[in-house]
């Protein structure tokens, strides 16, 4: 039975954010024991989702929700099924050990409290992402993972490499997030639904839409950047600049699997098309091979594991792209197995670095006696990563081989890709698990010894779980993997897992080939590393360097554009602003043909014609003024004419306001003009005057057309009726205009008053500034005149 019930999911998602607020204070007061207390939060979240997992395995689906912004149709709605349940369990379960591990790894660090705060925010963001039902909510959490990962990767902000890696991760994943937002908006427009559960129930609506390729590419942009698919794979290994707890969490259960989660989630509505089954296996297989080959090249334990994470994500994308039931089973199993063994191995690498002082595999050896528990955990996790029995990694490999073998089409190529990739991952697993611990004892920078309980708890538990879940394969398949596969396929799916193959067939032979090839390559690891080094040197350019070139190009382009459009001349700014405004007003009606009807000549009274004549006279006066000051004063005639119109049509208060504003405007402009060093006349050429006049006419015509279009629309009196009905009842005022200004729009009025105040202060400062020539003519009383001889001598020197 669930611990708190499905309605507590919101609190489970928000709990890490609350923990992030109090983490610095807890760390400051409890010091070395803070990790044990803080780990309670993800542990309780894990128990919550573990309680729901049993019901989900029986076919239950939970969709708790609460209003967020009802006026915009936004809700904090959650969707708990097999897929989101498995991810939530991995995030909270592994997150518990990551918090403990962080307490040991960063022991004594002056900013450990801040680190805990960042890791909890990251945890909450990922939990929200995998459980969110509303598409906009999902996107918000999606971007929060990018922001919080930026903080974690750049945690050691004094190092240039950390800052670059954090910025790179933010740019790549943030750019993909914008593409995903466009995809979500398009999905909402095509389906009319804002919740993922409703979109999943739409059947073939998206696949049959003419906009399907666009939706597919936009969703793919978000998923590929987040899950580091080729050619966006470069940011993930660079993220190893983060502390090891971040690397272990990032690679095992959180951010990098968000893209895979998204592809699995939308499989029922976007998958199983020619585009899907071609693009995903192509890029996933390429990422698998590229990731494993680059891993072979590395000697840093974290980088070796990081590139195999890239490869594993490629394998998951490739399997998801096949849309074959058995391959999907293999993908779900491998996702689960990978989280366990990769989290354990990253923590092992961090423990070695923490206790031996280096992660360089060429400077490590013979640590098995000094670090026996870490060695045992590394062996268990390495065996699971290698796909050897009796571990969950072996079962996953068997199922994925069964899924892609003998399906026709490109199955032979996919199978070969999987075999080569898995063999190379066996090489890295063996290198990480064996090389640092076996062989001759190597002198390390620090005296190596076993890590404390906080460092070894995570790798030991996760590596043992990889064995226990395999030994209880039937329960694992029935409770965890089966419901996950059902969610990915969009229908109930029964899965009966077995630890050992039930018959001798192609999957078993492919596993044997993988193991044999992996062992052979491991024995030639040093030669293989040197070969990859020479190959990469020959290639030279890569996506990582291309990222730097792209950023430099963007900076150069923006600098050039800024110099053109913002060269420091106010006249250019005004021309560009008004020109863009004119285009915005005139282009839409020109393209759509929605011009307003030409009004008939109104039947004005003689005094109304008089006001119109005054306005026209003011316009002529402005255009024919000989000096700038005369033009400014003449400009006020237009405002006074408008004020007269307000007065004639029964708005004396508005008319008075217009008189005051117009008078102040003329006075302020006149004062400013007298303080600026401007020519008294306008010396522009005729061409410039004609050009500026054309823009002015276009602006006037555009606004006039817009206002006529508005007046042609049916008048909606709802707002007027509201003010008429409630002005006295709510604001206790009879003058509706005053009530609107003071009560209903009080903040707007306050803002307007603030603007007037700031303008007045600026004018006052401008008035008090003396011209430069006047300042030079009036010397201070204490200043002594300089002798001409000294001046002459200084000039000569």
Automatic annotation (TrEMBL):
Domain MrpA C-terminal/MbhD: 614-676
Cellular component per GO, a single term: plasma membrane
Domain NADH-Ubiquinone oxidoreductase (complex I) chain 5 N-terminal span(s) in chain numbering: 71-116
GO molecular function: antiporter activity
Chain ranges of the MrpA C-terminal/MbhE domain: 688-780
Subcellular location: Cell membrane; Membrane
Pfam families membership: MbhD, MbhE, Proton_antipo_M, Proton_antipo_N
Alphabetical GO biological process terms: monoatomic ion transport
Domain NADH:quinone oxidoreductase/Mrp antiporter transmembrane: 132-414
Regions crossing the membrane: 6-27, 34-56, 76-101, 113-130, 136-155, 167-190, 210-234, 246-264, 276-296, 303-324, 330-352, 373-392, 412-434, 454-475, 504-525, 572-591, 606-625, 632-650, 656-678, 690-710, 749-767
Keywords: Antiport, Cell membrane, Ion transport, Membrane, Transmembrane, Transmembrane helix, Transport
Chain spans, region Disordered: 777-797
Membrane protein topology class: Multi-pass membrane protein
Record-given protein name: Putative monovalent cation/H+ antiporter subunit A
Species whose genome carries this gene: Stappia albiluteola
């Amino acid at each position: 039975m669930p611990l708190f019930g499905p309605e507590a999911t919101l609190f489970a998602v928000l709990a890490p954010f609350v923990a992030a607020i109090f983490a610095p204070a807890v760390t400051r007061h409890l010091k070395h024991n803070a990790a044990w207390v803080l780990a309670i939060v993800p542990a309780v979240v894990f128990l919550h989702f573990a309680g729901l997992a049993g019901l989900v395995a029986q076919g239950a689906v939970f969709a708790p929700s609460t209003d967020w912004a009802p006026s915009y149709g936004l809700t904090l709605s959650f969707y708990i099924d097999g897929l989101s349940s498995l991810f939530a369990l991995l995030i909270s379960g592994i997150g518990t050990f990551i918090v403990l591990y962080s307490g040991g790894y960063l022991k004594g660090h002056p900013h450990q409290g801040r680190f805990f705060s960042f890791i909890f925010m990251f945890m909450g963001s990922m939990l929200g992402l995998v459980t969110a039902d509303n598409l906009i909510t999902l996107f918000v959490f999606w971007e929060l993972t990018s922001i919080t990962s930026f903080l974690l990767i750049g945690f050691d902000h004094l190092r240039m490499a950390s800052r670059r890696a954090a910025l790179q991760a933010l740019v790549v994943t943030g750019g993909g997030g914008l593409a995903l937002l466009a995809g979500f908006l398009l999905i909402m427009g095509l389906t009319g639904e804002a919740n993922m559960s409703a979109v999943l129930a739409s059947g073939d609506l998206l696949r049959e839409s003419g906009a399907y390729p666009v939706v597919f590419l936009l969703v793919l942009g978000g998923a590929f950047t987040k899950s580091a698919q080729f050619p966006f794979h470069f940011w993930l290994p660079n993220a190893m600049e983060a502390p090891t707890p971040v690397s272990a969490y990032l690679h095992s259960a959180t951010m990098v699997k968000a893209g895979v989660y998204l592809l699995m989630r939308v499989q029922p509505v976007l998958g199983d098309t020619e585009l899907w089954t071609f693009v995903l296996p192509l890029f996933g297989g390429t990422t698998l091979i590229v990731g494993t080959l680059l891993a072979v090249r590395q000697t840093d334990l974290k980088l070796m594991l990081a590139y195999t994470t890239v490869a594993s994500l490629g394998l998951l994308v490739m399997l998801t792209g096949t849309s074959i039931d058995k391959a999907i089973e293999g993908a779900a199993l491998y996702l689960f197995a990978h989280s366990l063994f990769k989290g354990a191995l990253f923590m092992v690498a961090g423990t070695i670095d923490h206790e031996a002082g280096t992660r360089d595999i060429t400077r490590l050896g013979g640590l098995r006696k000094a670090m026996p528990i870490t060695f045992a955990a590394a062996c268990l996790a390495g065996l699971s990563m290698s796909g050897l029995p009796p571990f969950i990694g072996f079962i996953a490999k068997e199922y994925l081989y069964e899924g892609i073998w003998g399906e026709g089409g490109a199955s032979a190529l996919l199978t070969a890709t999987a075999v080569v990739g898995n063999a190379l991952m066996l090489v890295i697993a063996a290198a990480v698990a064996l090389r640092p611990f076996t062989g001759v004892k190597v002198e390390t920078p620090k005296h190596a010894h076993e890590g404390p309980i906080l460092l070894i708890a995570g790798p030991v538990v996760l590596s043992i779980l990889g064995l226990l879940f395999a030994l209880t394969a039937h329960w694992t398949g029935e409770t965890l993997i089966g419901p996950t596969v059902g969610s990915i396929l969009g229908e109930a799916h029964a899965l009966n897992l077995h630890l050992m193959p039930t018959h001798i067939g192609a999957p078993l032979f492919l596993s044997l080939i993988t193991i044999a090839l992996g062992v052979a390559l491991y024995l030639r690891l040093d030669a293989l590393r040197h070969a990859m080094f020479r190959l990469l040197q020959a290639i030279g350019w890569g996506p990582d360097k291309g990222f730097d070139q792209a950023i430099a190009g963007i900076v150069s382009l923006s600098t050039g554009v800024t110099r053109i459009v913002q060269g420091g001349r106010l006249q250019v700014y005004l021309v560009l602003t008004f020109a863009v405004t004119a285009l915005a007003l005139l282009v839409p009606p020109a393209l759509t043909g929605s011009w307003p009807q030409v009004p008939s000549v109104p039947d004005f009274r003689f005094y109304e014609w008089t006001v119109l004549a005054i306005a026209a006279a003011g316009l002529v006066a402005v255009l024919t003024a000989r000096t700038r000051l005369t033009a400014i004063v003449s400009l006020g005639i237009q405002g006074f004419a408008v004020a007269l119109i307000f007065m004639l049509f029964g708005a004396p208060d508005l008319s008075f306001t217009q008189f005051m504003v117009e008078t102040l405007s003329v006075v302020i402009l006149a004062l400013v003009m007298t303080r600026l060093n401007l020519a008294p006349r306008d010396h522009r050429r005729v061409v410039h005057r004609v050009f500026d006049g054309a823009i002015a006419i276009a602006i006037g015509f555009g606004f006039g057309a817009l206002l006529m279009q508005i007046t042609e629309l049916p008048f909606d009196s709802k707002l007027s009726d509201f003010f008429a009905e409630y002005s006295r009842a709510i604001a206790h005022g009879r003058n509706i205009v005053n009530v609107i200004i003071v009560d209903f729009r009080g903040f707007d009025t306050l803002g307007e008053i603030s603007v007037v105040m700031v303008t007045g202060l600026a004018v006052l400062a401008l008035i008090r500034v003396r011209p430069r020539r006047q300042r030079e003519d009036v010397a201070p009383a204490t200043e002594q005149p300089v002798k001409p001889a000294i001046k002459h001598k200084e000039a000569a020197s």
